[in-house]
Specification:
- 21% of the residues lie in helices and 42% in strands.
- With 156 residues, the protein is of the alpha+beta class.
- It has an eight-stranded antiparallel beta sheet.
- It is globular, with a radius of gyration of 15 Å.
Length: 156
Amino acid sequence: MGPKIIKKDSFQLIGYHLLTNLQKIGEEHITENMVSRLGKIKEKIENKVTDDIYVLQLYPFIEEFNPFEDYYHIFIGYEVQKVRGVPSEADIYTVEENMYVHTEFHGKRTDTYKAYDFLYNNWMEENRCIPLGMELEIWDNNENHTEICIAINKIK
């Protein structure tokens, strides 16, 4: 199934937040370290919706943004039904209701850039959508499956 536009209600995440860029993520294995830290507090997080890991990336609205050099926010956590029992070392983030282009990527997570390339450079233009600077990946326990959601506005 190809990309489609979906509406997601507001939801909350509990996990870890960091300001970084792709260069640091690659050199310092930041994502892997954050997921490992998250696993250590997993049982302390109450009201998890699932064990899926949410990777939220928030980009600044600057001209010619370059994710390899420019810093952006990354939040890695679990979706929770209601915020209760937040471990002291964790953060809470609320994602507001939004429209997204949603697709499922089947392949190594290191290759998700191929899906992003298609969505940003082909699909959004063909479907008259503008990205809003927020990407969400949902990782289940299958290493070769990633849900990708990019917040958008649809141009009429």
